[in-house]
Predict the structure.
Amino acid sequence: MSDRVIVITAPEFFEGEAEILNQLFESGLTRLHVRKPQSQRQEVEKLLAEIDSSFMAGVTIHYHSELVSEMGLGGMHFSYPQIKELKNSGRYTISCSLHQWEELNEVQDKIDYCFMSPVFNSISKAGYPANEALKQVPSFASNVYALGGITETNCEEVLDNGYRGIAVLGYLWASKAAALQRYKDLEQKVKAYDV
């Protein structure tokens, strides 16, 4: 088990999703981000109810923050503007999405980790190109996960460049039937890197 690979859900709900999410956890996933931008609370609650309760501490949610305490989730994810206003309760893991190193400098003391994107050309968002300034992690930054265009062929590069780990979305869900195997392949690459 490694905390170097974080999975972000597909933005849309799909048949058999909870089954795959449970399989990811069973295969060693330690942190899942449930990100459903257009969702209703009831839809998210239903999906979470289908995930084995033993995995709830490894679930971070992006919307419907009240579900964190109601369902015993492990974390809440915020946008950069939200995190600037946040007064951390310390009861759960706090993460956020950032796009510039200057932003991290401002909020690093309020978060446990962050996603920095796009490190490579995005797979899930067409026309969202890599930001070259994000290739190398500056010395002040810690617990930063590379997001955007992460695949089996480039995941080691971001670790070489100082990232704590990777966050995957597009590559994993581009083929839902292959999602579990793609996760295993990424996890294996990252584990081999740590040896």
Q: What stands out?
A: The chain has a mean pLDDT of 93.
